[in-house]
Every structure is written in structure tokens, then in C-alpha cells.
Amino acid sequence: MAFTAYPQSVVSTHSSLAGGSAATGDPLTPERENCKVQVSAGGSQTFQLWLECQYDGTNWVTLWTGASTAAGTGSASANVATSPVVAVVPGRPVRAGIRNTAGSAGDFITAVVAWQV
């Protein structure tokens, strides 16, 4: 197996996500021992963010969940969230999930970053 240089990352864009709707980002599969991951997101509306892992090859299990907070002012304002650093099992995919908690559609971006310690 060829090892991937670290850090690894995957960024997913969720355009015009309807109010109350959820989406998941593209998966990232850390390949080495002692790997840590962190998920973050930003968007035009308030949102719930979570990090999930596929431990058994089929089912996704939530490792962390959090809510957005407002950041910035005026035209530079946005809603953001970042998870704590989480240890994961190598070879198991992880991904971000996001739910638009506002009443109208919004645009969001999620990112999962992995690095070896």
C-alpha cells in the first residue's frame, strides 16, 4: 500500500442547501497510525455540523457534533464551526455532515483535515 503524504484534506461545497436539509461531504480515508482529524465549516446560514466515521465498512457513526456560531460583521459575516481534534482508525473513511438550521436555503463549505502525529 502506498502511503499518502500528510496532511490530507477534502473540501466539499453544498450550494443552495434548503432550510432544514442535510448533506454529507466527500469522504477522506486516513491511511496511517496515530492519525488525527478535524472538521470545520462555514456558511451563509446557521447550521449543525458533525464528523462521522465508517468503522464497519457500511454504517456511518457520529464522532462529534456541534452548532455554528456567528463570526465577522457586516458583509464579512459568516457562520462557522470547528470540531476538536479526534483520533481515528487508519483505513476507515471519515466525512463531514451539515444541516442547514435556518428557514431558507444557504451555501456551505465543509472541510476535513487529517494529519499524522
Account of the 3D structure:
- By secondary structure, the chain is mostly beta strands.
- About 0% of the residues lie in helices and about 55% in strands.
- The chain has strands at about 10-15, 20-25, 35-45, 45-55, 60-65, 70, 80, 85, 95-100, 105-115.
Features:
single chain, 117 residues, mainly beta, six-stranded antiparallel β-sheet, four-stranded antiparallel β-sheet, 10 strands, globular
Note the topology.
Layout: E1 8-17, E2 22-24, E3 35-43, E4 47-53, E5 61-67, E6 69-71, E7 78-82, E8 86-87, E9 94-100, E10 106-116
Antiparallel strand pairs: 1-10, 2-9, 3-7, 3-8, 3-10, 4-5, 4-9, 6-7
Brief account:
This protein has 117 residues and is mostly beta strands.
The biggest beta sheet reads: 6 strands, antiparallel
Fraction in helix: under 10%
Instruction: Name the structural class.
Output: mainly beta
Count all strands and give the number.
10
Q: How would you describe the shape?
A: globular
